[in-house]
Predict the structure.
Amino acid sequence: MPTRIGKYTIEMGSKPVILGFASVVGKKEGEGPLGEYYDQCHNDTTLGESSWEKAESRLQNEAVVLALGKANLKNTDIDCILAGDLLNQCISSTFGLRSLNIPFLGQFGACSTMAQTLAIASLFAESGAARHAVAVTSSHFCSAERQFRFPLEYGGQRTPTAQWTATAAGAIVMGSPQQKQEGQIVVNSVSFGRITDFGIKDAANMGAAMAPAAAQTLLDYFSDTGSSPKDYDLILTGDLGRIGSDLMEELLMKDKIDISAVHNDCGLMIYDREKQDVHAGGSGCGCSGAVLCSYIMQQMMAGKLHKVLFLGTGALMSPTSSQQGESIPGVAHLVYLMA
Amino acid sequence: MPTRIGKYTIEMGSKPVILGFASVVGKKEGEGPLGEYYDQCHNDTTLGESSWEKAESRLQNEAVVLALGKANLKNTDIDCILAGDLLNQCISSTFGLRSLNIPFLGQFGACSTMAQTLAIASLFAESGAARHAVAVTSSHFCSAERQFRFPLEYGGQRTPTAQWTATAAGAIVMGSPQQKQEGQIVVNSVSFGRITDFGIKDAANMGAAMAPAAAQTLLDYFSDTGSSPKDYDLILTGDLGRIGSDLMEELLMKDKIDISAVHNDCGLMIYDREKQDVHAGGSGCGCSGAVLCSYIMQQMMAGKLHKVLFLGTGALMSPTSSQQGESIPGVAHLVYLMA
């Protein structure tokens, strides 16, 4: 059963299990350093659809269908699906998953959505609220740019702090602890983050806006569990990029916590920053979703990584809030994965 | 512990308890038939803020603070808050709750958000994932109109099927089953709904778009539990309005289920349709939130209602999805409340 440890952390007594996971990405992501690890790479980032939003919906649908297949389950076996994305009213999720006929719980955690959906799905599987629950998220460079920043046709120049929204989706099928088989990944514990706001207002510097939330949730988790960075093989943030990753490490050093030896960031892993012109790195719900649901979990299944803290980070803003002079608050949720 | 009953319903073995609830509304709602039951009515619907969006954030914050007070709890006693609203990227929730420093899980269920947040908070409290969890939602007529329909200054004429987005918020503090005291309301079970789409495309007829989802979730629940309308004092939908309520009853009659004797709708209760010029009734996340967290729960605490099925209904669309030719899918989540 879920048991609270300290103030912010929930430990899974029996440890729900990841029965399947899948990632689907676009062309730029397929050409990146992790290209060979994704389940599906689309060279046409419209995916044959008539709009970027519909293409994103399709990414999410394909990721779920692939993950279900790998878990040997059908849509009718799933008790609920937790899904979210960056678009207004989470339409990628709604329209992408509509045909699956699975009880649907829309989530909004911005780029922390993969961690948020995975954490809730884990709690449902652990407690018996769901026998099988799916966690899924997506983002699409073109749908995000035109909604949050500029029309693509405008061709605006990007600042050095900007991150590149990944065209990608990741999906995970969680099962109850009793279903665990040899070699599968389990969720050991989760920590939900508090909204943190250091007053950053630059929507082209999301890494800086999210870094304080990431640092806070990690500090909370270490404090709750009495553990430290050396107890983990990997602390994986998603997605702080270069600026945010450096800031987070700097913030943690103020508390004398050095994660540099085990820290990596999905936004730094998904693209080759030297060759792919993405400035500070990748971002978008689908960035951490696809990196986690490909290379990272494959490394865990292969016995190369055992203890992974996955820390999803989100910037909770809208163009309207920014236009009204608001800063950009961040949030970060943590999921401790074990293999 | 949560136990699955049938295909879609989760029964709470020990029954988590509602420790506090509160509602905060605007002027029009305060002048409506339930005016005397709200905790707070604002005559100035800006709430002294510089934008409608900030006013909505404030509604949500006030509802949470009042509910915490009635539960004799502080923000630091709360393990997580589940919050959502209609605005892009759920900014009413983020900015309204930022200062409370409570672990935050953004939810998107459109007007089903009160049921969705309450259902998840109940599961968390039941399973031990949270000792105390808060569910909250809000809407504001002015922020919703300009985002989803027309600028207020345009003064567009409303069609007869249109519903009036309530300026309102509702908040509930859930506690673990062990905390129950005499006379308090408990959550007995919940059912999460599937996305349902009958192809309605008129964004001024949300009731029709949501009615099929409401009918489906209720049918699922009756089928799972073997119960029927006569087993309940009230089946409370929120918010179908006049058109949607009639349609839902008609859809259920096809399965020979007659709920008319026990059915009411928050969208029909919140305004006086004869005098308040709201056409088909009220809507918006805050409509069902405020009606549930005032008159309904007060009636339950007073022993006048014992068994209430609360069925939150949401239309999962955005202006973008409608502009791209999409229909308006609905979703409905059910919470069975007992006093």
Remarks:
- The radius of gyration of chain B is 18 Å.
- The domain at 183-338 of chain B is CATH 3.40.47.40 (Peroxisomal Thiolase; Chain A, domain 1).
